[in-house]
Amino acid sequence: MEFGVPKEVRDRERRVALTPAGVLSLKRAGHRIYIEHDAGADAGFSDHGYEEAGGEIVYSSAEAYGRADIVVKVARPTAREHELSRPGQIIFSFFYLPVASSHHLHAMQEREITAIAFEMILEDDGRQPVLLPASEVAGRLAPIIAGHALMNDNGGRGVLLSGVPGVPPAAVVILGAGVLGVNAARAFLGLRAEITVLDRDLRRLHDLDDLLNGRATTMLSNNYNIRRAVSFADVLIGAVHTHGARAPILVTEDMVKRMRPGSLIIDFSINSGGCVETSRPTTLRDPVYVTHNVLHHCVPNITSSVARTASYALNNAALPYLRDMGELGLERAVRERSAIRRGINLYQGALASPDLAAALGRPLEIDLTAEER
């Protein structure tokens, strides 16, 4: 099998989907890997490192796409990149198609692409192993982002996360006790902030309480409790994820209006549309805007700010599925690897994910999961 790794083209997208170690693993399995020149440079991986691992350097995106049976990338392809893809190609990427422009779906359908979404690969035990490390990295970045944004010079409330003796710490409210929310809670607690975590799953709250030895306040997530918690938050973290669908709006504009001036919202759910009504995507170049005197940080590719760590984490998580695809081919992988099967958004251009079809309000065009039922 031939794999292609194009250089990411979105603004300040510094991550790369395969590291030299990943290339070496695929090479030893008998595959050829084409790496676009400088594809890993922003994450600290040189062309020479890829060549030593057995990769072949190509000097254009067109060649990285044109030679590959399987394209492996981080961000979903742009309109220009769709034009480079070959009919019948397989693309692994973070897609988030429920909140993407419809032209992405149409372009891939026209080329009969098999689109496998990293964020939708789902194991039988409910784990999302490729999304997991991205969530870990984002959660651990949260206090770094918050500490900077809360400074007066950056328009924040002038609150130190830890407080000092005689002055209370910042109040941090986290919506969601999944992987991202738990990692954010642990990171904020390490700075001695005051933590409140809300989730609709009581089991998750019990697990979190045990993990943190009761050092965080937990609340059942409902409209009443969310309204209460948002009103006292210095920092509000959106860490809500719904598999294959748009994130639900949990924080209304009216709730935002009641927040303290200079407080901060970090909506990590923005990849899936955001869980705060006033959220809109921002960029690493211009990450923060102000609405109703509240700072909003809503960067979909925030882990690109630590591109080397994020690239290693993505490579480690995705590599087993890439190896399976290379060994088995598409048809056998669909039959024998349920996690890959659940990650397929499009199968040779046909809408193949029940969750995605429901999110888009469109009929399922091919059912790959029939044998699971």
Q: Can you tell me about this structure?
A:
With 373 residues, the chain is of the alpha/beta class. The protein folds into two domains: 2-120 and 307-372, NAD(P)-binding Rossmann-like Domain (Rossmann fold); 135-300, Rossmann fold. It is 36% helix and 17% strand. It contains 13 helices and 15 strands. It has helices spanning 20-28, 47-52, 61-66, 79-84, 102-110, 131-149, 179-190, 202-211, 223-232, 253-257, 307-336, 338-343, 354-360, and strands at 2-5, 32-36, 56-58, 70-75, 90-94, 114-117, 171-175, 194-199, 217-220, 235-238, 264-267, 288-291, 294-297, 344-347, 350-351. Strands 3-2-1-4-5-6-14-15 form an eight-stranded mixed beta sheet. Helix 4 (79-84) links the parallel strand 4 (70-75) and strand 5 (90-94). Helix 6 runs parallel beside helix 7 and helix 6 runs antiparallel to helix 11. It starts with a strand and ends in a 13-residue tail after the last helix. The mean pLDDT is 96.
Output the keywords.
globular, Rossmann fold, 8-stranded mixed β-sheet, 36% helix, 2 domains, 373 residues
Structure classification: alpha/beta
Distance between the termini: 31 Å
Task: Tally the beta strands.
Answer: 15
The number of helical segments is 13
* Sheet with most strands: strand arrangement: 3-2-1-4-5-6-14-15
- At the first level of CATH, what is the class of the largest domain? Alpha Beta
Unreliable residue runs: none
The largest sheet, given as strand count, sense and whether it forms a barrel, is:
8 strands, mixed
For this structure, the CATH topology of the largest domain is: Rossmann fold
Integer count of domains:
2
CATH architecture of the largest domain: 3-Layer(aba) Sandwich
Shape: globular
Q: How much is the radius of gyration in Å?
A: 21 Å
Average pLDDT: 96
Strand content: 15-25%
Query: N-to-C SSE series?
Result: EHEHEHEHEHEHEHEHEHEHEEEHHEEH
CATH homology group of the largest domain: NAD(P)-binding Rossmann-like Domain
Helix content: 25-40%
